[in-house]
Amino acid sequence: MLIPRSHPRATSLHIRERLVNGYKNGLVVEEGLLAHGRGEMFDYLIGEKTSKMSHDAIKAAARMILLAKHPVISVNGNLAALCPKEIVTLSKITGAEIEVNLFYANEKRKKAIAQVLKKMGATQVLGLDAKFSQEIPRLDSSRRVVDERGIFIADVVLVPLEDGDRTIALKKFGKKVITFDLNPMSRTAQTADITIVDNVTRGMTLLIKSCKKMKQASLKKDLKFDNKKNLDQSVLVIKNNLRRMSHA
Ligand code: ATP
Ligand code: MG
């Protein structure tokens, strides 16, 4: 489909197209398309741009990843369809491992995702070899399997567009969790240590930039970042946008 550049939602429609292609190529499941719709709705409400709070969260996230001993990027179908190149670039800059970890686990889909990432230059993609499977506690059967070289031993895990149950389980398992989630009220957003309330298609590029910049500087360990406060302010952005739209 040809989307005219002048279309007011051209960017949003292009992102949809990426996701639909991901679905056709076996990366994304039907439920992933619906989850994207939920995200789009919140993107609409935050004004389809990166807020000051999200810029702050991105800086805090970059610092946390760069200071981590064993950072891991957890990749699901939607993320692989939306920003495969950015996943690989972020991994190369920070030394983070890439692990495929799916809500709706399926070996064929895992392989398709790994293939796309390798095409983009990933040298190692974890989460596919059953020989290295380990289980994280307090999560139902299929979703608790992780790679013993990746999430199992990670100190910091980046889990974009994640389900709340898994985020809570990762936290209980002692991980520091960073997420991209357009809904500041979701359980994932509320549970993570750092929530970037932004579309992952905008935020990943900014996170990469921030990591590149910070790598040159000496990083202070005492990071002052209040996720709850940041989330409250993101809700306020939505509230103010709604107020403006209602002309009240
Ligand atoms: P939770 O389980 O955390 O309470 P949920 O059940 O409402 O959240 P899920 O489908 O489990 O939603 O998780 C997907 C999350 O990803 C949603 O909060 C959705 O808003 C968000 N999301 C979807 N697409 C994007 C995107 N492109 N960028 C950022 N966030 C997104
Ligand atoms: Mg959920």
What report would you give on this structure?
The chain has ten helices and eight strands. The chain has a six-stranded parallel β-sheet, with helices on both faces. A two-stranded antiparallel sheet has the order 4-5. The protein is of the alpha/beta class. Bound molecules: adenosine-5'-triphosphate and magnesium ion. Adenosine-5'-triphosphate binds next to helix 2, helix 8 and helix 9.
> Main sheet, how many strands, which sense, barrel?
6 strands, parallel
Mean pLDDT: 93
Strand content: 5-15%
Low-confidence stretches: none
Number of helices: 10
The bound ligands are: adenosine-5'-triphosphate, magnesium ion
Strand order of the largest sheet: 3-2-1-6-7-8
Topology:
Layout: H1 10-24, H2 30-46, H3 52-67, E1 71-75, H4 77-82, H5 84-94, E2 97-100, H6 107-119, E3 125-126, E4 133-135, E5 145-147, E6 156-158, H7 164-172, E7 176-180, H8 187-191, E8 194-196, H9 200-216, H10 227-245
Parallel strand pairs: 1-2, 1-6, 2-3, 6-7, 7-8
Antiparallel strand pairs: 4-5
Helix pairs in contact: 1-2, 3-9, 3-10, 5-9
Bound molecules: adenosine-5'-triphosphate and magnesium ion.
